[in-house]
């Protein structure tokens, strides 16, 4: 250790002693990586009882269930049972707050299997509460207890208030001059006036009046949307309901979804979340919500009816309204990390309850293992953390009515000690859970740690976001694929990734865009990200956009560029909705939503991030919406486009006709050499005669046969149509070279004849005879 650094550490120790004597925050410095004796002996938590009333009577209560549950106790007395898992705690207080903010503390004296619990008579629904947890302050061993910090119940069903993150919310002195030891300096200021509170909620809804759509995976079309962003600018939604669950439940919102034909909405995070400190300092907010802190509570900011528990009922009414329209509700959930960030982050809940028990720590237990890029990683391999996650999932299914989940950075949840393990406790528990194994499960199959990329590796029951599909389709239409091998796999269900272990083509969730990255319109308008509005000097967001601006960066008045861009949009949407697998659209892409080139709009809670419904007044974007709805309707009408099993590619009859065949523009079937040759065109024949499986009455499923011609070249190509046994005659169903798609010409062409396919276009032909 250098003399200068040693002198700095000695000064820190001196400051610590003075802080102890004066009653200010207690610093506990580290020298040479070793824990030195503290200047005032072992520092114990000092209970700060400012504005606190004497404790109410507490009966023993029960250790199950966890959280705050209102019920009638002994002799029919109404009250609430509080139970909190806090393994290393020395004492736990439940803190009750009245409307004026006055605090009453009740000590939970019962301790069963590491759960502190007690029944408080007279506490009814609507009561605001939090916990204070006493224990050692010893960051070097991962212990970060600080009873001056009011903690949110991990099982809180509703949250009242917002996280603003002033210095008082940090268990350490956030602005300590020596930042390298700041996380070891305890801050004893009371955080209660500055943090949201949990709310006691009584839930006796049995969902008897709800009918779940239960759409089969193969028939699903997913629509990713943001509750606030989808509704904020919708002219048909009353202003007081915009940005809320009630707004999404409004007939005007649901009418758009049903016209489009999607079967499920995938909601960006609706768990209670907090805004990051660095955003608040720049006057921004976390818009997407990937910063969860309450895994049982609907985010209060999306409630039109109130935040004292009313948000729970409002969310349920939204789910019922969507179900009544035949639309499933899938939640994007973030169980890989929490809003408490790294060691310099705020203490909001789990860190103060049992830091070592909930988070993955490094060998230096001051530090967190970060497989998420967000500062911390929940330790899903531990029983109590796994219980928190699965209790939350079951709650949203059984008591909130949702139909499935998309797991953000799912690979982080599947890690055992360090490596991703497909036999991990998390995946094993999900596979055997009688509730969770029956709902839709979607993995984002990667995290940011070593070995975290796991596309194609998740076990049966799971579907996955397939970024290999995204990249191949983008590259094909921008002319960046050297050949068409990868495209062939992606169009036909990605059998190279998923044809193992009983998995099906619908294991692949196909997407071209998602919330993270360019919108579809921006994908054909920008080649570079334009994230200056995020306040990070355009450093945030990916540089690997695989986009093509069609000749000009940004919006252009050149009519030729506008025509080309709209054609490219039609090509991308058509490719997506004709591909085998589960298609996922992003809200607004069907009518040209733009974020002005921002490919990381996570903090743009404004018109950049919100859907602009005025675009539907433009005939050009109306036409794109019409094409998208036509393609979805075509998909629903034809089982050959939504297969439940992979193609075999083998002859099924004496005529040699196969369920899937690939053709060159010369009209010949693709050979091995053709797959490796440079090419910008690919023909895909889908036979409706050879669909595996039977309908509900046991009858063989049959359908029309189709030929899709995809041509990404910049000049027209003469294409010889395959003749018998493939077809005698074809009918054009769709031509993306046409601006108007509402009523395309039903022209017919004989097999063996040459058809001119326009540059950069898709032609879909139906076999007539």
From TrEMBL:
<dbReference type="InterPro" id="IPR044505">
    <property type="entry name" value="GlgX_Isoamylase_N_E_set"/>
</dbReference>
<feature type="compositionally biased region" description="Basic and acidic residues">
    <location>
        <begin position="531"/>
        <end position="543"/>
    </location>
</feature>
<dbReference type="InterPro" id="IPR004193">
    <property type="entry name" value="Glyco_hydro_13_N"/>
</dbReference>
<dbReference type="InterPro" id="IPR014756">
    <property type="entry name" value="Ig_E-set"/>
</dbReference>
<comment type="similarity">
    <text>Belongs to the glycosyl hydrolase 13 family.</text>
</comment>
<keyword id="KW-0378">Hydrolase</keyword>
<dbReference type="InterPro" id="IPR013783">
    <property type="entry name" value="Ig-like_fold"/>
</dbReference>
<protein>
    <submittedName>
        <fullName>Glycogen debranching protein GlgX</fullName>
    </submittedName>
</protein>
<feature type="region of interest" description="Disordered">
    <location>
        <begin position="531"/>
        <end position="556"/>
    </location>
</feature>
<keyword id="KW-0326">Glycosidase</keyword>
<dbReference type="InterPro" id="IPR017853">
    <property type="entry name" value="GH"/>
</dbReference>
<dbReference type="InterPro" id="IPR013780">
    <property type="entry name" value="Glyco_hydro_b"/>
</dbReference>
<dbReference type="Pfam" id="PF02922">
    <property type="entry name" value="CBM_48"/>
</dbReference>
<dbReference type="InterPro" id="IPR006047">
    <property type="entry name" value="GH13_cat_dom"/>
</dbReference>
<dbReference type="InterPro" id="IPR011837">
    <property type="entry name" value="Glycogen_debranch_GlgX"/>
</dbReference>
<feature type="domain" description="Glycosyl hydrolase family 13 catalytic">
    <location>
        <begin position="224"/>
        <end position="635"/>
    </location>
</feature>
